[in-house]
Structure formats: structure tokens, C-alpha cells
Amino acid sequence: MTAKATPETSKPAAVAVIGAGSWGTALAQLLAERGETVRLWVFEPDLYHTLCRDRENAAFLPGVPLSPRLGYTQDFAEALEGAAVAVMAVPSHVFREVLQQAKGHLAPQAVLLSATKGLEIDSMLTMEGVVREELGAEAPYAVLSGPSFAREVAQRQPTAVTIASRQQGAARFLQRLFSAPYFRVYTSYDVTGVELGGALKNIFAIAAGILEGMGLGDNPRAALITRALAEMTRLGVRLGANPMTLSGLSGLGDLVLTCTSRQSRNFQVGLKLGQGQTLAQILAGMQMVAEGIKTSRAAYLLAQRLGVDMPLVEAVYRVLYEGLLPKEAIKKLMSRRLKDELEAITETW
Prior knowledge:
The protein has 16 helices and eight strands. It has helices at residues 22-33, 45-54, 76-80, 92-102, 127-135, 150-154, 168-178, 191-213, 218-238, 249-260, 265-274, 279-284, 291-306, 311-321, 326-334, 341-346, and strands at residues 15-18, 38-41, 70-73, 85-88, 111-114, 141-145, 159-164, 183-188.
């Protein structure tokens, strides 16, 4: 079954969006509303048939009527035919597998734009690292990140994000492509910083949810956000990022968003942990992926390997994977060696 052909969807798409979760669907809708012809690659057969029939993503973005300029497919060749841009909007733990299946169908010089916020678990690579291994160092690559809940983008609420690429022309091209009256896009060339900010904030959102679930107040949340920014910056600088990037939209901006809103899936995971649920119980009741669960393991191992002090990341990792009780994690954090604040921020820079 295929979507009903229209003059737009029957011709090759200008943009392919790989992944029909809430974020992939919201970005596809944004581009379609801007007049682009977009094909959305859908993994789940049931969701594919529902999208074709109803033009609504009832599973991941309910209540949003989708543009007739959107086409749907489960075939990579059809999705990527002639596409100048391929947006990867799949979870980080399947990013490499999906890319391996799709890469043979990428048009020459097509720009690959990652909308994924996470680290690969075993390799501890960012998505750029995965793409470099799969497509080579010269493949046009960019990343989109920043404080942006999919539903609010779909509702046309004012949103600001960053698109980073090491290739100046690609960043500016994508900036023009995605910018809309309600969607402001900044450019950056610090791919490492933008990717790390988007990945690490999910871990700290889990921590913020834990505080909320335990009934704690604003003081601990403010301390968490501030110290989380220091940890993000330490790791980022160690990997070559500009520290100012972590104070921007994809760092501090996304950190504040996900640490203060119950819309965040990662915050919801932490909330339930703080209320006493086990990780297994939480995962059993989830439909969408909370990237911070897997990323916490990758980030913890990466920090250990590089010798970067990240006590909050370690605490979340131990709560998730070693059964450390949240109240014990807080006790350990509060009893660490006393430090000068600037020393604590800049150590390992």
C-alpha cells in the first residue's frame, strides 16, 4: 500500500526523512509546510498503513494533520531517490544499522543531516563518528540540535535550534531550508559541541526527573543544571569542542528545556525512578525511546576512558544500571571533596 499520489508526492522528494517518530514527523511536516516535497521513511508496518490512510501520526504525534506534500514509504530506494538532503531521525542505538541499509541509496553529494541526540553505546561515538566510519570523512554531514519538543514545533510555537556542519556551505544551505517564521535556525561549525550537548542533556534530564519524583524542590534542580553544564563543557572541551557552544542552544538551552519540563521523555523516566519504580517497570510502559538511558552508559564509559570527572553522569549511570538508590546517589554527590567553584568548572580544560 502506498500513499495516494499527488503532483508533489509522485515526483522524487527534495528531502528524505528517515524515521517517523515524533521528531522525524515534526521535521518532515515543517519542511512540507515550507513547500518542499518530502518522503518519510517509516519502519513500523502498522504506522506506515495508518499514515497512508489517515495522514496523521496517531502513535507519535497525534492530533496533527499532515501535509499532502508528505509521502510515505518503507523502501529506502524510494525514500532517497533524488533527495538532496537525508535527515536521520532514528534512535542512536539503531543509527548505524539504519545508515548501513540506507547508504547505498544516497544520491551523490546528498547532505546527511542528523537529528539524533545520543551516543553509540559500544563505540561511544557521536553520530558524526558513526557517519565517518560508514560513509567516509568527506561525506557532507550536519547535525540539528537545540531546545525543541516535537509537538511544539508541530504546533508552530516559536523555536530556535542550531545546525552545525564542518562544511560552511552545507550549514548555510540547511539553515535556509529549515528556517520558518516559527523555526529560527542558527549555524555553527562546532559539530562536536552541538552533538555532545544534545546527547548529554538527556542524562541530566533523567537526574532532574529523579529530583522531582523524590519531591525535592528548586534549589537542587538549579544546582543540578549548573553542575551539569560544567560536566558537559568539560567533556566537550576534552573532545575538541568550543566551550561557548555548550552555553548555547544545543547545550544550555536544551539542558534547561529537558530538566524543567514533564514533556521530556527522559525527565519522565527520572520522575518514575524517583517515585520508586524500577527501570524494567518504566521501560515496559514506554512506547518512545528515552535516549538518556543508553547514552548514560556510553557517556560514563567515555568519561572513564578519557579521565574526565563527571559525577552526575556517574550517579545516573549507577542508578540505572547498578541499582544505586537515588537518595544514596545524592548523598554521595553532596559529600564529595570540597572545591573552589572555578576549579570545579575548568578542571581538565
